[in-house]
């Protein structure tokens, strides 16, 4: 029987692939008006190209960072910060930019096979590369969806190292936004775990219940509301576990566990719209079915980490 879940939250956070980082974001440098000319004029600067939600990979376990001369001159840039990894090819302190490339620019830089999906390769990346890819893709998604002012419809210009977009007519600044979402490992009195199947998935794919935090709502309130809305189950004692950025396109997944309310447990019933099936699993049942009749979330997700935290070890699939 697997060991019971550790109470060490630091240990849990270490299991989250996209929460790793070895980059100093060096935010004060974003104020420099000569930041990009200075960095592009230094061939020791390294640039991570991103395009269409993908990053440039050298191998399955490492990103491909390029010198400034390898990047199309009209590419939109974002300053990611300074490398802190002493085991990387680049020395500690190396400045790193992201280049947000159009389709045409991406084809000039690399073949299609060299572009990789972070969800697929996150677990094999180093701490630095996982952090770089997550940061770069998240900010690239924000730029793609904020080309125009939500107030006036006028075009916005990227400033301050790519971390602000400004309306050049009235000076109004738009800053990056992240959408918080809760994701919850719900257990009952018998310590069984509740998993649900989403209407958009294969019928045998199961994961934890999750949902976005609404305006004016605390994280704990969102836990109680979302679980009830999707499953009919009422929960209590929401306990924070850890969080992981999820740049697909702009979420922060905030992990909790909670238990069914002993006084008012509700009635287990999927909402029928988003969730079409719900199941309680013992550890033995999940281990027996994982990878066979039940498909679990990928190892890059916080859902997988919470499930295995409850289980007590990794689950083979």
Automatic annotation (TrEMBL):
Enzyme class, broadest EC rank: hydrolase
Record's catalysed reaction(s): a 5'-end NAD(+)-phospho-ribonucleoside in mRNA + H2O = a 5'-end phospho-adenosine-phospho-ribonucleoside in mRNA + beta-nicotinamide D-ribonucleotide + 2 H(+)
Nudix hydrolase domain residues: 176-303
EC numbers, comma separated: 3.6.1.22
Highest taxon, organism lineage: Bacteria
A Pfam family recorded for this sequence: NUDIX-like
Cofactor(s) it depends on: Mg(2+); Zn(2+)
Keywords assigned by UniProt, alphabetized: Hydrolase, Magnesium, Metal-binding, NAD
The UniProt record lists the keyword GTP-binding: no
NCBIfam families in the record: PRK00241.1
Family stated for the protein in its record: Belongs to the Nudix hydrolase family. NudC subfamily.
Protein name (Swiss-Prot/TrEMBL): NAD(+) diphosphatase
